[in-house]
Please model this.
Amino acid sequence: MTIKTIGLFGNPDKSEIAEAILRVLARCEAEGVSTCAQDELASLVPGTTPICDTADLAKRSDVIISFGGDGTMLRVARSLEDSKTPLLGINLGALGYLTDVPLDELDDALDQLFAGKFMSAPRERVLGVVMREGREVVRCKALNDIVVNMGSLPRALHMEVRLDNVTLGRFLGDGLIVSTPTGSTAYNLSAGGPIVHPGVSSMVVNPICPHSLAIRPLLVPIEKTVELQLHNVGQGATLTSDGQEAFPLEEKDIVVYRRAKEPVFLVKFPSSDFFLAMRRKLQWGAINRREPGS
Model:
């Protein structure tokens, strides 16, 4: 794939973003590659760099570089309007599971981009639809997860989960996470759910703190339809998409989860490896003790 235009997206509040953007602009100019930038970055780029909104950014770019943390990557993914433009995350945050290129490897990442040594890897998204009295009131998509809980109110929810119209049972708990494989290393993991390789087409259905030892996270094929029926909700129940959009829920609302038609595409290099990232970022298999004689 030959790159003609690179789009720039980022969190302007990050202290290192201005320097990182200038480095990218200098390299693009040297390589004869055009650039354009999201409107929030207007004050950080020269006046000669075209400015546009995120939807237009995706249309004009062959690759979008996101500067920030995972929250920034989720934000740009939500704004792509089902575009197939791949995203490359430069980590200016802390953990950075989606933004898997640290700032000190920026130049090497650009070398591989300009040489065409990368893959555009699809990542599944989950679609959530809230049905109220037989009509749709909310529709959202998430790259990581869609969560139902009571927000700031310390109360349990009475929920019923169905899979392809088959009732799996009712339970009391703090809520429910429906996660993609990409999101399995986020809230799902903290709530005791499994780590899922992004190549596994699935959803994780993970009850949050269920009041029963018999309720456990469930991994289901991505083609399945999951339904969550709310009972005795009261006030405060909330649906959250990727931790960035929130919608209030009401008594007897039904949340329907299914595979979103269009995935998000991420830039992956030949050296990219899910299990290597898992070991580095999550300390998988780390032995927290000193070796003999050390």
The CA atoms of residues 65 and 88 lie 5 Å apart.
